[in-house]
Amino acid sequence: MSGPGTLRVLCIAGSPRRGGNSDRLLEACIEGIRQAGGEPDLLVAADAGVQPCRGCNTCARTGACVIADGMDEVNRRIDAASAFVVASPVYFATVPAVLKIVYDRLQPYWARAHRLGQPRPARRPGAYLVVGGGGDPFGFGCAVDATKSVFAVLGVDYSGELCVEGPDVPGDVLEYPAELVKASEIGGEIVAAARAGEGRE
Question: In the CATH hierarchy, which top-level class contains the domain 8-200?
Fold first, then answer.
């Protein structure tokens, strides 16, 4: 968890490109986090240096992953966070590959809780911001469910969601001012929820 007086929100940018619509939503959310007195910690999934899970199941025996790569730093930042925000586009009804790789590598958290009987992480709030051009008959559901599954493994309460359908070309989301305001509000709400949760510990 964050140190004394610091309420750190891990903000995961899940798009393979920078400056797109999900990044703009995350920027608005980060502004809300700052205004509420939180400290955003931006993690760009595409730049994290994380390899795909090998499915070796070693973590089910040891609680740790055998792959030594950027996930070690991702785990450190997850453990230090008081709250979480994930932002991504929707690709074929789910999250982009760069984000799914990070999701899959969280298997040791599941193994420690469900196979090894170790204490679960403290409850923390989290939110998901997702944007897509629309037209896919399966919509946002798979992306939302995958993120909810990951949050459950991390002990994160799914406390906020913003699904924006329509923006496609980078910058389109700037034509959705109400959604950008909502993203900022979610940032403030996550900080407030985290602060309330820490007060109960």
Answer: alpha beta
pTM, entire model: 0.94
- The residue type of 75 is N
Convert 53-73 to b/e letters by CB count within 10 Å (16 or more is b): beeeebbeeeeebebeebbee
Q: What is the CA radius of gyration of the chain?
A: 16
Token representation of residue 105: 């590598």
DSSP alpha helix (H) spans, the chain: 21-35, 59-62, 71-80, 97-104, 107-114, 141-154, 177-200
| Cβ neighbours, 10 Å, residue 98 | 20
42 φ, ψ (degrees, to nearest 5): -80, 125
Three-state secondary structure along 163-185? Answer: EEECCCCCCHHHHCHHHHHHHHH
Mind listing the pLDDT tens digit for each residue in 49-96? Answer: 999 999 999 999 999 999 999 999 999 999 999 999 999 999 999 999
Please give the backbone phi and psi of residue 94, each rounded to the nearest 5 degrees, phi first.
Answer: -140, -170
Q: Give the torsion sign (CA, 173, 33, 193, 143).
A: positive
